[in-house]
Design goal:
This protein is mainly alpha-helical. The protein contains three helices and no strands. The longest helix has 37 residues.
Length: 102
């Protein structure tokens, strides 16, 4: 089936999905710019890469947001955990570089 033979509504929905995907990528990039700065501050101040209390608060907050947005809270938590794992990895790398420089 060629795209010209697909229903117009399907093509419009797909275009919306593509726009949302692009926005998500840009938002994730901005989030990682912020968490990179956090990692630098943590490293300079000798703070741990992970902050379990903060992570717990974030899980609770995002689960509530997901529920109010009619999104599966378990999915939201898995998504956040995936991001946090990557952030911690970045923070650990930053701390190792900071320690090597001192």
């Amino acid at each position: 089936m060629t795209s010209s033979s697909l229903p117009k509504e399907l093509l419009e929905l797909r275009a919306s999905i593509d726009n949302i995907d692009a926005a998500l990528i840009h938002m994730l990039a901005e989030r990682f710019r912020c968490t990179k700065a956090v990692g630098v501050l943590k490293a300079k101040n000798g703070l741990a890469a992970a902050d379990p209390a903060r992570e717990k608060q974030q899980v609770e907050r995002l689960r509530a947001l997901a529920q109010s947005a009619d999104l599966d809270p378990d999915f939201a938590e898995k998504f956040l955990n995936f991001i946090v794992k990557e952030v911690i990895r970045h923070h650990e790398t930053t701390a190792a570089k900071e320690n090597a420089a001192t």
